[in-house]
Amino acid sequence: MADAADLQLQVPAGAEWGPAFDAAGATGAWIATIPAAEREKSDAYFEGGYWIEAWGALITVAIAWILLETRLSARLRDFAERRARKPFRQTLLYAAGFMLAIGILGLPWTLYTDFFREHQYGMSNQTLGAFLGERAISLALGIALGAIAIAGLYAIIRRVRERWVPWATAATAVFLLFMIMVFPVFIAPLFNDYRSLPAGELRDSILALAHDNGIPADDVYWYDASKQTRRISANVSGIAHTTRIALNDNLLNGTSEPEIRAVMAHEMGHYVLNHSLWIPLSTALMLGIGYWVVNRSFGAIRARRGGRWGVRDIADPAGLPLALAIFAVVMLLLTPVSNGIVRIAENQADAFGLDAAREPQGFASVAMRLSSYRKIEPGRVEECVFYDHPSGRTRVMRAMRWLAEHPPQSR
Question: pTM above the 0.85 mark?
Answer without folding.
Answer: yes
